[in-house]
Amino acid sequence: MDIRIYNIAPLIILILLFSCTEIRIMNQKQEFDPPKAEIKEHQHKIHNDIRIDEFYWLNNPDDPEVIDYLERENDYYKKSTSNLKSLEDQLFSEMRSRVKEDDSSAPYFYNGYWYITRYEKNKQYPIYTRKKENLFATEEILFDCNELAKGYDYFKLVGINISPDNKKVVYGVDTLSRRKYTLMVKDLESGELLITNIKNTTGYGVWANDNEHIFYTKKNIKTLRAESVFRQSINLGKKSDKLIYTEKDSAFSVFVSKSKSDSYIFIGSFSTLTSEYRFLKASEPLDDFKLVQKRIE
Fold first, then answer.
1. Which of 47, 184, 203, 220 is the most buried (most CB within 10 A)?
2. Residue 151 · residue 173 · CB < 8 Å
3. What tens digit of pLDDT does each residue of 196-232 get?
4. 239 in the same domain as 206
């Protein structure tokens, strides 16, 4: 029998710390009351049935009243947990000490370049790089997210997709933590951003093989469901936007992707139980997509 003994001392220390903290909180007299959201009745009517929602007004994140209430909630949280600050710092230091901060991903090869994601000590965000043909070549930094994140409370970069000629990259950025990504295109030779600036997307763009047209998915503004696929020329920008497909069934979401061979572009619609695909030759981006097989319940 293989018997292994693990070091459980850190876990025991954490349990004791939390136990002592809980006792302190129970013994501490609360000197302030939590904020209470105002009741404003709102009627939802569907299928001849009326449902009352007393807090529907909190649904609008841009409403000054909502912002004020959330700020009071945050203030209450800070006051209620002020006695835990030392424990918070202690736990953070403990967890951080176990993370390798100067780390990098395994390099992967694609279309003539090695791609690597790395982290540097005392920096929060990744650095995306590539090296031409071999791992001893000069490193080219595609994105240093530590620089891009400056000035934002939240920053996330996703969907890095290099054009077939290796000269441009399409990617998505979210600075609100709402997964409503703005799609951008960067010229890798000049380092300049192109006129492409598409809001409310899933953050992923797919290149046609002409190195000019990209296909992308937009979200419903209210539900954030991925529902529409568009095509745009990176040379002409917004005026070249063309709606290619809309998923009208709210039980389905839609996405766009490219085949492993880079020969085809796919539009996929999917729900819990079934899916449906359309395809197009990546070398002929202005043609119409063809249906593979209609969805079957």
1. 203
2. no
3. 999 999 999 999 999 999 999 999 998 999 999 999 9
4. yes
- Domain residues for the domain of 85 are 38-99
The dihedral formed by the CA atoms of 286, 287, 293 and 296, expressed in degrees to the nearest 10: 50
Q: Which of 130, 194, 120 is nearest to 160 (CA)?
A: 130
Instruction: Tell me which residue of 173, 190, 192 sits closest to 181, measured CA to CA.
Output: 173
Q: What is the pLDDT of residue 61?
A: 86
The rounded distance, in Å, linking the Cα atoms of 282 and 1 is 57
Q: Can you give the pTM of this predicted structure?
A: 0.76
DSSP letter string over 12-29?
HHHHHHHHHHHHHHHHSP
Residues 271, 168: one domain? yes
Chosen domain end from 80, 99, 118 = 99
